[in-house]
Write a structure and sequence with these properties.
The protein is α/β, with parallel strands linked by helices. Helix content is about 55%, strand content about 15%. It has helices at about 10-20, 30-35, 40-55, 65-80, 90-105, 115-125, 135-140, 145-160, 170-180, 190-195, 200-215, and strands at about 1-5, 25, 55-60, 85-90, 110-115, 130, 165, 185-190. The structure holds SN-glycerol-3-phosphate (G3P).
Length: about 220
């Protein structure tokens, strides 16, 4: 399973990159705003900075919601760097745009996926990734992980190449469950990724090893 970090924070991206486990980055307009990155020129410059930091795919989201606008913005984003994957919302014109981008060899990530039917349409249009938002489904008492399992079954039934990019991950168990269910990618905040490092028995075991070593070397 690939690990993407879900942030526009350059320090956090660097920290995940330094761990040696990072395969890519996802962003969205809310994550950009959280870092105080506003205005088209600043946003484009920030995407370039992220691409310089990491080697893998970097999802950059369009703001337009009409076909012409999505295509114009998507082509501009894709021209920034070959690492860019154009993030397109799951709307009718978004699906049409994904079809257009696919025919023109521009990779896409269909975002705001909340049902298996939406994922199936995006895959049919040729999306490189679909992003089911599991945390936001959990927030409304719907099982987000169930959606990952359904999409996995559908994509395997028909050998779709579209990768399942589990998004809206809130905690380390989401990452583990996505790995068990066969998601291709988990995009998560740094806190959920680094939480995978921790176990109290690791801490107490290491402490004991060091105490015993020091006893023998007094
Ligand atoms: O990648 C999508 C993700 O950023 C949404 O996460 O926590 O805002 O639901 P969240």
């Amino acid at each position: 399973m690939k690990f993407f970090i879900d942030t526009a924070n350059l320090d956090q991206i660097k920290e995940a990159q330094d761990l040696g486990i990072l395969d890519g980055v996802t962003t969205n307009p809310s994550l950009m705003a959280k870092e105080g990155i506003t205005g088209k020129d600043n946003i484009l410059a920030h995407y370039r900075a992220i691409c310089e930091l990491v080697e893998g795919d970097v999802s950059a989201e369009v703001i337009a919601t009409d076909l012409e606008g999505i295509i114009r913005e998507g082509e501009e984003l894709a021209a920034l760097n070959p690492q860019i994957v154009v993030k397109v919302p799951m709307i009718k014109d978004g699906i049409k745009a994904i079809h257009h981008f696919t025919k023109n060899d521009i990779r896409t990530n269909c975002t705001l996926i909340f049902s298996a039917g939406q994922a199936l349409l995006a895959a049919k249009a040729g999306a490189s990734y679909v992003s089911p938002f599991i945390g936001r489904l959990d927030d409304i008492s719907t099982d987000g992980l169930h959606l990952i399992a359904d999409i996995r079954t559908i994509f395997d039934n028909y050998l779709f190449n579209t990768e399942i990019l589990a998004a809206s991950i809130r905690h380390p168990m989401h990452i583990i469950d996505c790995a068990l269910l066969g998601a291709d990618v988990a995009t998560a905040p740094l806190s959920a990724i680094t939480a995978l490092l921790n176990h109290p028995l690791t801490d107490s075991g290491l402490q004991k090893f060091l105490e015993d070593y020091n006893k023998g070397n007094l």
